[in-house]
Design a protein that fits this description.
This protein is of the alpha+beta class. It is about 20% helix and about 35% strand. It starts with 5 loop residues before the first strand and ends in an 8-residue tail after the last helix.
Length: about 60
């Protein structure tokens, strides 16, 4: 079975001193694949999914 790219959230962790805990938030989405491909950072899940679909169809050079 071939590697399949999928969009995943890009998360940022920050320690909040007022809450005395580590806070995590999603700042965007990026396509990842087991072959080592990483798509560009996107603000919208749909755009990251489009990049992943292009990669899955074999347009390996079309997306950074």
């Amino acid at each position: 079975m071939a590697d399949r790219a999928t969009p995943l959230p890009v998360r940022v962790r920050v320690h909040d001193t007022e809450l005395a805990t580590t806070v995590q938030r999603i700042v965007g989405y990026r396509g990842y694949c087991a072959c080592g491909w990483r798509g560009p950072h996107r603000a919208d899940y749909g755009l990251a999914r489009s990049d992943a679909n292009l990669h899955n169809r074999g347009h390996r050079g079309g997306v950074a």
